[in-house]
Design a protein that fits this description.
The longest helix is centred in the last third of the chain and has 29 residues. Helix 6 runs parallel beside helix 9 and helix 8 runs antiparallel to helix 9. A four-stranded mixed β-sheet has the order 1-4-5-8. Helix content is 43%, strand content 12%. It is α+β, with helices and mostly antiparallel strands. The structure holds flavin-adenine dinucleotide. Flavin-adenine dinucleotide binds next to strand 1 and helix 11.
Length: 406
């Protein structure tokens, strides 16, 4: 197998690299400093606008919808080049491009596509994901937030319930929302999908304060929230299919090709070991770095293959979970290795050190990726059942009307 770029891909990479070199540095986040979330959000919007104006937004979306109509492999190449810079590319921007737009493009109406896709690619509209609930995370289809038709003949929906862990919901413009519209059918069948303007009366976001001092997530309460039927995505009762499209985008987007290992190799090569050689001359360190690099490269190629499948209209199904599962575990191991290489400095960094604070933060944060977007155990179940064809988990509630579940 040949993993090198074709001549056309190499030309695309060179074009992307040159454009990024002249536009990305001005948008880079300061190393080692966690800026306020409002500032990060503003910077995220500005970088999206720059990408759009430069013709680098929505690479795989059709040109008619504001994208460039390119293939998955070009999107991967751009992501690889972009990840050389420390840009505001967190969930604030990726929920829109990686989750809301795929579901609107696939299940929405022409009017919805025209309304949201270009505006999101430009950074004018940002998104949060209103899926998880206090009693519905891994078992998302158990969600209880409900919507009923308004009794005034308008066709509008009235939504009541609570979501949780809604990343950036306090700062974003719109939410993708899944709710129960029919409790008389089994749990996966009675769900309907909406987009909701986060300024609609009745939506209250309460930021959850994290141990890091940041507040990226929220509890989101919905009380008599009125949503026009024009904001329904897909048919009534077909919300689960929309959720699957969103989760596919979330899982395939994991990792975004930022190399965690290469900076460690550079660091080990540049750091004296106190005995006249460098850290990289230590056989054990070299072995761990080599294994981590091989692991990373393999996963990146696998991710590129699946993204190419999606851009050709194919469905990787549960294979997408392997990207997320592989990335989350790898990220934690690599950052742990980075902390070991830094030794005592990893615990108490010199104030002038701009490398270690990011490493510390990323190391601690890496645990959450084992849960966000589908916990490891749940992804393993799906891979076992749908990829390896192993016997399914016992699911007593699968065919029982939701309202009869205890
Ligand atoms: C950083 C982060 C950001 C997030 N952002 C969002 C967001 O923007 N929007 C949103 O809607 N949600 C968001 N979430 C929520 C996320 O989707 C859920 O946390 C996740 O789906 C797990 O659900 P839970 O927390 O309810 O855990 P549970 O479902 O209660 O799981 C608890 C434990 O039980 C295990 N478990 C559960 N079921 C099984 C099973 N069948 N077999 C084996 N083990 C099982 C799980 O693996 C896990 O270890 C975010 C979470 C994190 C960590």
């Amino acid at each position: 197998m040949d993993f090198t770029d074709t001549p056309a891909e190499a030309a695309f990479r060179a074009e992307a690299r040159a454009w990024l070199a002249s536009h990305a540095p001005a948008h880079e986040l300061p190393a080692g400093i966690k800026i306020p979330d409002t500032e990060e959000a503003d910077r995220g919007r500005a970088w999206m606008r720059e990408l759009f104006d430069g013709g680098w937004a929505g690479l795989t979306f059709p040109k008619a919808l504001g994208g460039r109509g390119l293939s998955g492999i070009e999107a991967v190449i751009f992501a690889e080049e972009e990840s050389r810079y420390h840009l505001p590319k967190g969930p604030f921007t990726s929920i829109g491009t990686g989750m809301a737009l795929p579901v609107i493009a696939k299940h929405g109406t022409d009017e919805q596509r025209a309304r949201f896709i270009e505006a999101t690619l430009k950074g004018d509209v940002t998104w949060c994901q209103l899926f998880s609930e206090p009693a519905a995370g891994s078992d998302l289809a158990a969600l209880r937030t409900k919507a009923v038709r308004a009794d005034d003949g308008s066709g509008d929906w009235i939504v009541n319930g609570q979501k949780v862990w809604s990343s950036w919901a306090h700062l974003t413009d719109w939410g993708i929302l899944v709710v129960r519209t029919d409790p008389t059918v089994p749990k996966h069948k009675g769900l309907t999908f909406f987009v909701v303007d986060m300024k609609t009366p009745g939506i209250e976001t309460r930021p959850i304060r994290q141990i890091s001092g940041m507040s990226e997530f929220n509890e989101t309460f919905l009380t008599d929230v009125r949503i026009p039927d024009a904001n329904r995505i897909g048919a009534e009762g077909e919300g689960w299919a929309c959720c699957m499209t969103v989760l596919m985008g979330e899982r395939l987007g994991s990792g975004a090709h930022r190399s965690g290992v290469e900076p460690l190799v550079d660091y080990a090569a540049a750091t004296p070991d106190g005995r006249g050689a460098t850290m990289l001359d230590d056989r054990s360190i070299r072995l761990q770095l080599a294994e981590a690099l091989a692991d990373e490269r393999g996963l990146n190629h696998f991710q590129a293959r699946l993204r190419t499948m999606v851009s050709k209209g194919e469905n990787p199904g549960a294979l997408a979970g392997m990207v997320k599962l592989g990335y989350a575990g790898r990220q934690q191991r690599v950052l742990g290795l980075g902390m070991e290489l830094r030794g005592l400095d990893a615990l108490a960094a010199d104030p002038a050190d701009t490398f270690t604070p990011d490493l510390q933060y990323d190391y601690i944060y890496s645990t959450v990726m084992r849960i966000a977007g589908g916990a490891d155990e749940v992804l393993r179940n799906q891979i076992a059942e749908r990829v390896l064809g192993m016997p399914g988990e016992v699911r007593m509630d699968k065919d029982v009307p939701f309202e009869q579940l205890k």
